[in-house]
Amino acid sequence: MSSTSQKHKDFVAEPMGEKKVTVLAGIGEALGKRLEDKGFDKAYVVLGQFLVLKKDEELFRDWLKDTCGANSKQQGDCYGCLREWCDSFL
């Protein structure tokens, strides 16, 4: 299994509440700004899209690439973070 970042560990350790989109693993300031500009300003809004896409990795990665230009690593980090959060809290 691949190692996870501290950002990932922090995110999956607790409910997300009203946290900004930039708390998601793989989403920094630049991608966060692009997501915010398209209406995805909170982590829970991105989670909603993740769930609409039925937690499908390929669909979510494609959506993230198309929506904010995330590269493969960023896509994978964000997907893994949301998947693990769902496994813990849903």
From TrEMBL:
InterPro entries linked to this entry? BAF, BAF_prot, BAF_sf
Q: Where in the cell is it found?
A: Chromosome; Cytoplasm; Nucleus envelope
Pfam families xrefs: SAM_BAF
Q: Name one GO biological process term.
A: chromosome organization
For the keyword DNA-binding, the answer is yes
* Signal sequence range: none
Keywords, ordered alphabetically: Chromosome, Cytoplasm, DNA-binding, Nucleus
Q: Which cellular component, as a GO term, is one annotated location?
A: nuclear envelope
Single GO term (MF): DNA binding
Similarity field:
Belongs to the BAF family.
PANTHER family (alphabetical): BARRIER TO AUTOINTEGRATION FACTOR 2, BARRIER-TO-AUTOINTEGRATION FACTOR
Q: What is this protein called?
A: Barrier-to-autointegration factor
